[in-house]
Amino acid sequence: MTSHTPADTFPRQYARTLRYTVGAPRSFSVAPDGSRVVFLRSRPSAGGTPTGSDKANLLWTLDTATGEERIAADPAVLLGGGEEDLSPAEKARRERSREGSAGIVGYALDAAGGLAAFALSGRLFTADLVTGGTAELPAVGPLLDPRLSPDGTHVAYANTAGELRLTRTDGGGDRALAEPDGPNVTWGQAEFIAQEEIDRDRGFWWSPDGERLLAERADDSPVRRWWIADPANPDREPAEVAYPAAGTANAEVGLWVLDLHGGRTEVAWDHEAFPYLARVHWSEGGVPLLLVQSRDQRTQRILGLDVTTGATEVLVEERDEAWLEAFPGVPAWTPDGKLVRISDQGGVRALVVGDQVVTGADLHVRSVVAVTAREVFFSAAGGAGEADPEPGWIAVGRISHDGKQLAWESANGRPFTSVTSAVHAGGITVRATAEPDLPGTLVQVARDLAEGVVVDDVATITSYAETPVITPRPVFRFAGERRIPAAVFLPTGYDRERDGLLPVLMDPYGGPHGQRVVQAHNAHLNSQWFADQGFAVVVADGRGTPGRGPAWEKSIAFDFAGATLEDQVDALQALAGEFPLDLDRVAIRGWSYGGYLAALAVLRRPDVFHAAVAGAPVTDWELYDTHYTERYLGHPAERPEVYGANSLTGYAAGLERPLMIIHGLADDNVVAAHTLRLSSALLAAGRPHTVLPLSGVTHMTPQEEVAENLLLLQVDFVKRSLGL
User: Whole-model pTM?
Assistant: First the structure.
């Protein structure tokens, strides 16, 4: 980490550096022999200091024997200094993954970890990580998601024409493996729901022997079309978006086995009962594995696939009265053929190897990082047990297949920290860790000295990310009887005797898949900035947020508006007994689900909340997508009363407090219709409110020139609304 530009304000620096990710290493892989680590990172400026504005990632390697880092591929060289040219399909993929950087944003390796393939401006490139050479291969683009065969002789890739194609790495033989048989058909690409909600951005998978691929065929013809216009530029044609809103049709998704010689076999499973293809795994440990889910996500199956016939066999079936999750890294095989999965059993989210639950009730397993011949590497969260001293830790552990040996990957001698990512292969572990008093992340490379017990640090991968101009000072607590994870921020230099009680700004996300209370530094910068404007800021992760166990997450089933809002109120009132919170001056702000929660707070509890800023809020849940909304609220045709109770428009007449609604007009995730419908309902009820439209802005963070004024406008609105 290095110094910032002196003229920077926090909002501008935060936006310019993409939340301080510019210059930070990311997307790690380890060669199977442990000889090298591969990663992405933007370049430093002259002298090794960050520019903070060069968002183009380069492909890098680190030699684990020497610790030397070197550039394996540089977009500026490969493109001859020209600008990137991104197709609409690639822009959409990046929006789905919240990818704001440029250059090389993803890559794939062969089985030996010596050759990398990646897309750049829709063109296909490879980098030899041993010799250092790069090459552009002929390809029919713009292409998406190139992936090398295990032996490194071929690259398969999808393109914007909907094809799945194959080319040799010697530069010859480019041909189509599958071509669309309809105007809305794509091969080898994950459909919208898989990318946006199921955390699956892949659409094809190589066999271990490199002779076949599993390929998704998606047809979004049944999906309703929406049109995203740009009101600031009425001469531009609106963008057509196939958006599967709650209660409407999804894309039709199938899977096929394609061999390199033209053979094609359709994979058979009960598509009507299990329309969602959530996970695919193909390794030498066993047959290909599919995880498929019912539309209501109360039932899911792990299927084993016979690649010769396309037939599938049910290996595991799970049911849950609320819903079931698809977790990163599973299902998978151990090298000797034991099935590895994560399962909610007996109120615990546990790791299962074969038929044995190998983790205990004190752990909340989040993902599987790697599976070796003797161990499973996994991430787990804390904060559920009474013995946990503070909320928000996330650790990576390694456990033997029988569950008898457990060890933690430690950072600076502290096993319970916040591990933001980790990979393991060839006896090498790469872990990126964050701590409240450490800006950014620390990326350490470690080598196993003894199985599951001791590691030896090899190197620390350099970060060129800028140091933030402010320092957050979170105070972590479990609030109230339910032990709600919370973090409190006071203004820098605050003195209670001198300054007295402070106006309060609640700053939640507060919904599924959004953990805000973590043992980290950069995650809390926005909250500290708001505190430094003269507020006591409270971040509370109530029921529905991850990391506390299945019952905590699933207690919001069919009821967003109840538990999530109640926990914000309870955390606020509990923390007021310890911190200088003025409960007569309480505002709330948030984005996305946090925006929904902020608007809900002033509509439902004006006795507690005196002003709100709602950014990109979901106001009518029938306008949000199928997989997310139906998981929590059910199907709107079956539970119309649930949708009515949880949407905001029905509460419009009850608005008594100042409300500012902010929305990007180019948002194709939470479309601007959400804000417009709520605003219309408020107007019809005669309730004054403020709407701030952001031209050309999507669901992601606004551009640098907007960011500073956007934050300042929020502060000004809240201060005026609270009479400050």
Answer: 0.94
